[in-house]
């Protein structure tokens, strides 16, 4: 074949290829499938599957499955359904409110990954990543006003302090403050922004807890790298405390004219309205008594965190969500904790879950949550700081009170 004929042949082949490619581009590509076949099983199962058949004959199994009784679940489902139920379309049936709530509670109760959870829920990981935060937002919306509120008036603060005095022999107390690091998978390109003093990535959960182990206020989302003592100083609560905007009872209405206060541990800075223990190693008897009495009031926040992590096992592994969604999920866990503390006490947090003290023989009985490896890491203790004279005088007054008119008969025996 002559060179000119070979060139013509090549040109003809090239033209055929171009025509073929253009023709293929004009043909609309058909989608392989709308939904994977195994996920379609959700549409043929009863709406309530897999949890509906459990409660009637096996209430303990239902509780283990979702960490609440069937009665609590039914109430919660009725409350959130208007907020999470979606409409069916001509293309497919929507995921029901029941299925959304079961998937969300299962995620919180187990901490399983979305890729793993999709097999038991028959909901894709992509859909779970959307509906779980949406359902957590709905839970917050229907429960927060009643189950997660700080007192707003002196009278409401007095009710909180009266419970501390009745239960823990600690007067004028508005709550126990504590903080924990929540383990997360760091967001992309965040570097060491979330890296904490323990060497893992976290956001900080700060809380104020009442005498009955219930969260009154939480602040979640501060990056773990932030100085632990500085976490509280960035909250609206602390700013309101320093600016005297919390409407705390005046000293004219408190026990023995002592300052109304909150109790905390070594991770926080002493303040005239915030009591913390005297630091070791050398402690007088009077200071030891003060530290003991303070620890009895402060242990409610440690128990609240312990029960929270024991029941909601999402805290047992790094949470693989964006920081914004982590805040939503953690807040939902805290408000569910309060909801179940009040409405499902025997099942959610029975007596053996809590720390107890036998004042007759001086023994401490740890709560069952302590048998598990700690999942929420405490904040780091602050270095010795320059204490304001007003804060130091306030602590000394309480020390004198607990060693004088406010002494209890068993405190010397316990020590």
From TrEMBL:
GO terms for MF: hydrolase activity; metal ion binding; nuclease activity
Subcellular location: Nucleus
Keywords: Hydrolase, Metal-binding, Nuclease, Nucleus
Domain of life: Eukaryota
DDE Tnp4 domain segment(s): 178-338
Cofactor(s) annotated in UniProt: a divalent metal cation
Pfam families: DDE_Tnp_4
InterPro entries attached to this UniProt entry: HARBI1-like, HARBI1_dom
GO cellular component: nucleus
Cited PANTHER family: DDE TNP4 DOMAIN-CONTAINING PROTEIN (PTHR22930:SF284), PTHR22930
Family listed: Belongs to the HARBI1 family.
Protein name: Uncharacterized LOC101731903
Source organism of this protein record: Xenopus tropicalis (Western clawed frog)
């Amino acid at each position: 074949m002559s060179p000119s004929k070979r060139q013509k042949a090549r040109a003809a082949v090239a033209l055929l290829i171009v025509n073929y490619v253009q023709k293929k581009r004009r043909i609309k590509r058909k989608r392989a499938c709308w939904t994977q076949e195994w996920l379609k099983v959700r549409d043929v199962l009863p709406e309530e599957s897999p949890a509906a058949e459990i409660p009637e004959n096996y209430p303990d199994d239902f509780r283990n499955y979702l960490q609440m009784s069937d009665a609590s679940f039914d109430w919660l489902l009725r409350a959130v359904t208007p907020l999470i139920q979606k409409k069916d379309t001509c293309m497919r049936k929507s995921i029901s409110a029941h299925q959304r709530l079961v998937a969300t509670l299962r995620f919180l109760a187990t901490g399983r990954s979305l890729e793993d959870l999709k097999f038991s829920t028959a909901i894709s990981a992509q859909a779970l990543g959307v509906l779980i935060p949406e359902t957590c937002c709905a839970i917050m919306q229907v429960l927060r006003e009643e189950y997660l509120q700080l007192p707003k008036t002196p009278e409401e603060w007095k009710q909180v302090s009266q419970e501390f005095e009745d239960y823990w022999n600690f007067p004028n107390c508005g709550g126990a403050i504590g903080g924990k690091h929540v383990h997360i998978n760091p967001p992309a390109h965040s570097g060491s922004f979330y890296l904490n003093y323990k060497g893992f990535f976290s956001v900080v959960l700060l809380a104020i807890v009442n005498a009955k182990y219930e969260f009154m206020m939480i602040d979640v989302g501060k990056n773990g790298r932030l100085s632990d003592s500085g976490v509280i100083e960035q909250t609206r609560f602390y700013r309101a405390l320093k600016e005297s905007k919390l409407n705390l009872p005046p000293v004219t209405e408190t026990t023995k004219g002592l300052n109304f206060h909150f109790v905390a541990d070594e991770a926080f800075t002493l303040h005239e309205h915030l009591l913390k223990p005297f630091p070791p190693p050398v402690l007088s008897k009077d200071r030891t008594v003060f530290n003991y009495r303070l620890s009895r009031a402060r242990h409610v926040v440690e128990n609240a965190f312990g029960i929270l992590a024991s029941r909601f096992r999402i805290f047992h592994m790094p949470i693989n969500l964006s920081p914004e969604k982590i805040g939503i999920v953690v807040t939902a866990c805290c408000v569910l904790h309060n909801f179940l503390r009040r409405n499902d006490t025997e099942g959610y947090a029975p007596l053996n879950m809590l720390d107890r003290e036998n004042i007759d023989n001086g023994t401490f009985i740890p709560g069952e949550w302590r048998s598990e490896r700690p999942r929420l890491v405490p904040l780091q203790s602050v270095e010795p700081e320059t204490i304001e004279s007003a804060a130091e005088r306030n602590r000394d007054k309480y020390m004198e009170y607990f060693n004088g008119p406010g002494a209890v008969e068993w405190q010397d025996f316990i020590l």
